[in-house]
Fold L-ribulose-5-phosphate 4-epimerase.
Amino acid sequence: MSLDDLKQAVLEANLATVRNGLVIATFGNASAIDRASGQVVIKPSGVPYDRMTADCMVVSDLDGRVLDNRMRPSSDLDTHLVLYRAFPGVGAVIHTHSTFATILAQCLCPIPPMGTTHADYFHGTIPVTRHLTPEEITSDYVRATGEVIVETFRDLDPDTIPAVLVAGHGPFVWGQTPEEAVMNATILEEVAKFAWHGMMLRPGAPQIPAALLDRHFLRKHGAGATYGQPT
Amino acid sequence: MSLDDLKQAVLEANLATVRNGLVIATFGNASAIDRASGQVVIKPSGVPYDRMTADCMVVSDLDGRVLDNRMRPSSDLDTHLVLYRAFPGVGAVIHTHSTFATILAQCLCPIPPMGTTHADYFHGTIPVTRHLTPEEITSDYVRATGEVIVETFRDLDPDTIPAVLVAGHGPFVWGQTPEEAVMNATILEEVAKFAWHGMMLRPGAPQIPAALLDRHFLRKHGAGATYGQPT
Amino acid sequence: MSLDDLKQAVLEANLATVRNGLVIATFGNASAIDRASGQVVIKPSGVPYDRMTADCMVVSDLDGRVLDNRMRPSSDLDTHLVLYRAFPGVGAVIHTHSTFATILAQCLCPIPPMGTTHADYFHGTIPVTRHLTPEEITSDYVRATGEVIVETFRDLDPDTIPAVLVAGHGPFVWGQTPEEAVMNATILEEVAKFAWHGMMLRPGAPQIPAALLDRHFLRKHGAGATYGQPT
Amino acid sequence: MSLDDLKQAVLEANLATVRNGLVIATFGNASAIDRASGQVVIKPSGVPYDRMTADCMVVSDLDGRVLDNRMRPSSDLDTHLVLYRAFPGVGAVIHTHSTFATILAQCLCPIPPMGTTHADYFHGTIPVTRHLTPEEITSDYVRATGEVIVETFRDLDPDTIPAVLVAGHGPFVWGQTPEEAVMNATILEEVAKFAWHGMMLRPGAPQIPAALLDRHFLRKHGAGATYGQPT
């Protein structure tokens, strides 16, 4: 994929988060990486969505050196970069303040697999990070946000649980492609909505059987997937 | 009705579930049966709704033998087939992950008749299935989903209670025609929304008097129906 | 106003209830009365809203004698007629199953004045009827629904509290004109939404001071009203 | 900015509150001040939004003397004027009955900083006023509403907490410009929605660390702001 195509795909991912009701104002940002060149394309900072074009997308390397000088990158760039460096299977990252995912992030409430909607996309509980320390917040805050996500996944597989709730902030979601990351962010909001309402009605928050979790996740993902049309 | 007309009706039922806000992504599927020929028409698996045409609809017989080879049928086909075989009055089946019906399915919470909106379409409590056993999940899962629905209706009438919540999954809904199944799925989501909010405010979940349940259901259904225009 | 104009106004009131999100499917109906002639114009029964024209509106007298033979009137006609006979200040009646008003009706939960939004349109608590008896339900149910509303207003003023929640059913709302009834039905749903959420957060359901209730209601209604532009 | 430009900006702010889902019916009003001349431009009273033009905007001085005679100003004008006189940094004021902000105002429930969405726009808890006394309500009610807001901010900075919930009524929000006030009103509704749901799930209402509140607010506001593009 050319750099221009990647910019277009990142633009479309950003616009899709707005269209899918995940982002208001300028909250939220999407990026993607070209693994061959190590170039990362990300939304610019604070530009209204209705004036955003593919040309506005900012290119940086994996160390955060901006490779063009037109616009300032998203203020969350360093978080994205930490994820790209730590999770080699990730091709795109999306951050939103979508309603129910943010509510649960604010409540420090992980999302257990309560139904097959969850199991179709996330192979286990979606975790919440710890809060950053005052020191982390006042020094290199944006990078520390990425690092606390990586810390949270020390014993988890980011390829099968492609989302996290950052404590007191909101969700970061990823995928192999921008389209997949958009889909994961959209489904995350849906399962967060289901989870909030389920936890309110049944504080015990019943989880689905492990066999059902496996059955649904594995029919859509991995070598044995049978869902969809043969490609 | 010709097979082409049935494909068109099934396509429209699938699109209506999206338009009525019952389905996001590719969750959900609608089918219908031609009782004369025993042919079942169902949505293909994993095809985006905006690219779906009547030609994409897959035809199978009641044993699941696909009668054309163009596309893979919905991964839930076998559940639909069990329902067509067990419930002779059913002409169309719809599965969605609509918000409140899914939340209640995840909470294993049946929907009692709390108001006349419910009574206009469902003549009693909408039940929840038991969870499938690990053995059922790991062997013939999709067929077992249909069988646990039939088991749930052992002492219930599927013609007057045309919906069920599958535990940890979501609703299956049916009707004599695709249009009726769409309407039942839409009203189910509405009464599920009412039920969730009512159970939160009044944990006792007050039900309507039996006489009111009968009055509303029977003025819209059966030989004595008086609702609507004479046909 | 000519009968044709009244039909047009009733059609528009019915369509406005759909447009304002108060009605799905064919739930809901609006009517109006010409007090000079005693003629009542009401929606037909079970006709989809997108095929409804002014010509579909049914005309009856105050005793329910249909004055034209084209279409069957709304199944709730007799409830409307009881209200027109009992409440001389009422010029239009609307029935909906709007979400939060219906939820509170199902919970037998009156709506106290918890804020100025309520006070701007309703001068006190919006009451809930008692449930009808089995005898009332099995004999002349629709008329009995009207009569239990009138009973509920024995000590209330329908001109300053233009709405009621019918137990286990949903709201009936009225006004001097179809436009006013539509507005009252829309605001009722809004204050019902506020009330449900307020009662969940603060079970004590704090009410506004009596002076604030009077101040807001009376600046919009009655001889001393100062709201809006001079007419 | 000319008076005509200010009228246009105030019109657009009023229309934006409707477009952003903050206002139904004719609830809500927006105004702005030209600090050089002391002229205030505000929405007229009770005019439907779809018939509102820039010419309808009413001009008054800071003492409430209407400088043109065409239309009656918003019934809340005197509240706006108190805020302009007391808060010299305020250039525009918006009042709405937006859903969750109003629900919390009715519950007398302040909004603590529970997440970074809040911190990006409000540098601390959004307060609730006390209820007005019967005497205040029956005498100069609208002015008293402004005065109780000013009283509530005796120890708070209106430039960094640009919103308040008026007890039993709804939010007043402000900003340096009409555009900023619209944004603040929109974000207020979002954080109120987050807060209601968070308080329901976790009655303790966890707040974010003080360092995180500072970090997010100060990267968007004040001399050290780094968010957005260089101007």
Q: What stands out?
A: Chain C has one domain: 3-220. Chain C has eight helices and six strands.
